[in-house]
Each structure stands twice: as C-alpha cells, then as structure tokens.
Amino acid sequence: MAAGRIGTEIASHRGGAILWPENSLLAFRQALSLPAEQLEIDVHLTADGEVAVIHDATLDRTTDGTGPVRAQPMAALRRLRLKGTDGEGVPGLAEVVALVKQAGRVLRLEIKADGTGRPYPGLVPACLAVLDAGGIRGRTVLMSFEPMTVAAAAAAGGFQRLVLLMGSRPWHGMGPEGAIALARACHAEELGLTIADWDEASVAALRDAGLGVSAWGTNDESSIRRGFALGMDAIATDDPPLALRLRG
C-alpha cells in the first residue's frame, strides 16, 4: 500500500511521550489538540479499587514516589508528582475519559498486568464503570497483552475494538498461525505488535483471517512510514505531530 494511507489512524502513545511527560494530563491535553484520531493510555488498579493512568506497575520511574501502584490509594497517587510536569499527580481514568469525550476522540486503553505479570482481579469491571459513566465504552479500543483480560472485555461487550498485544518472543515462537488462533480464542479483533515484527506476509495472513493489525514503536520517520506502507489499522507513536505530517 502507498505510504501515508489515510486509513491508518494515529494514536498518541502515552499522550506523546517524546514530546511531553508520559501519561500526564499535560500530555493528554496537548495530544488532543492535534488531529490524531486516538489517545493511547495505560492503566493499573489502586489499593482502593480505582483506576490509575500510569504505564509501569511501580511508581519509581515516572513519579517522585516509590513502590507498587497497587499499594497506594488513588488519593495518595494524586498527591505524588509526575516527573517533568509542574506538580501534576497521577491522573485517574475518569479525568482522561472526560478529556477524550470533550475532544470527540477514540480512547486506546491498554489494561496492564500487575508487578508479577498477572491480570489484576477486578480491573476490567473497574474500567467499565468509568467508561460507562463517561459514555465512551463504544469509543474505546481496549488492549492487553493478557488473553484473559481481552476475553473478559469481550464477555462484557460494547467496545469499539478489542486488541491482543503480543511481545516479540511469543510472536516469533508461534508465528501468524498461532497468533491468529490465540486471538480468536480470546475474541480479539486485532493483533498489535511492535512495528519491527510486522512484514507484508504477516499482515496478509492476519487480514486473510479477518483480523485487524496495529503497531507500536513507530517513533521516527522510518518506522512511521513503515507502518503506513504496511497498511496498519492504527499506529501508536510517541511523536504524533511527526506522524500527522508524514501521513499528510
């Protein structure tokens, strides 16, 4: 397909992590001021069963706090400071839902595993409650590396799309045939890989199976152009302005 295929939607990854502090309200507001179609975020469960928007299972890398996200209630996470911001705390999902709804965009929501790599019990229902309160379940693309999490979301229904994410090691271990079987087993409608793992034959195999394709790691000109040329349904990029310029 031609580079810059307009059918490839652009998702601002963690709000545009190259340009602004990742998963911050600052980043989300900046990203939503752009014409990128989707806003990509990550969520973990808090000690009091709330949904926190943060990538890691621990606080150390992106905040002035330490230890597991799961050990803190949402109120304590809000009192922390996200590095690179002017005193912002860790946002809750409801705050991001309100911004996405106001902007009329699609939320690309990755449900993370806990610090041991296991799904959080209750995180899918907790997300559903927030999405439904904001009225955007149908405008949410839900993603996870955990097939059980995708299956739970499929059982709930009503999402715009369900995406099974897959790391390089399992992808190279099972290949397209195994990945297609796993996606079907958990009722995913799309497979997400790092852009380096996609090639034309793999895209064709997924398309022939009736599944969508998406990529992350599209953060420079060559990787973004590759995502467009391969005809991805969506690319998640840390530099949404660059992707928008290249899509043209």
**Annotation, overall tally of beta strands:** 9
CATH fold topology: TIM Barrel
Radius of gyration: 17 Å
Question: What proportion of the residues is helical, as a percent range?
Answer: 25-40%
Structural class: alpha/beta
Low confidence ranges: 1-5
Name the average pLDDT.
Answer: 97
Tell me the overall shape: globular
Q: Largest beta sheet: what is the strand line-up?
A: 1-2-4-5-6-7-8-9
CATH homologous superfamily label: Phosphatidylinositol (PI) phosphodiesterase
CATH class: Alpha Beta
SSE order, one letter for each helix or strand: EHEEHHEHEHEHEHEHEH
Q: Could you give a short account of the major beta sheet? A: 8 strands, parallel, barrel
What does this protein structure show overall?
The chain is α/β, with parallel strands linked by helices and 248 residues long. It has a single domain (9-247), classed as Alpha-Beta Barrel (TIM Barrel). Helix content is 37%, strand content 19%. It is built from 9 helices and 9 strands. An 8-stranded parallel beta barrel has the order 1-2-4-5-6-7-8-9, surrounded by 8 helices. Helix 3 packs parallel to helix 4 (123-134) and helix 8 (221-229) packs across helix 9. The longest helix is centred in the last third of the chain and has 18 residues, at 168-185. The radius of gyration is 17 Å and the shape is globular. The two termini are 15 Å apart. The model is unreliable at 1-5 (pLDDT under 50).
